Amino acid sequence: MTAAAFARPGTRVFDMTGRPIRGWIVVDGAAVAEDCTLGARLDEGRALAADLPPR
Q1: What is the mean pLDDT of each run of 10 residues along the chain (55 residues)?
Q2: CA atoms within 13 A on the CB side of 4
């Protein structure tokens, strides 16, 4: 799932301090300007999170 997300335009690794966080993705606002695109990305994120083991 992560590789597919990075293949889309407007995505990059979350990195604010020079230490990227594995598995975190930043999506540019322009890449999700349409409601349907934003909704699809949110649905994918929810599905991914639901499959993660509990902490």
Answers
A1: 80 90 87 90 88 87
A2: 5
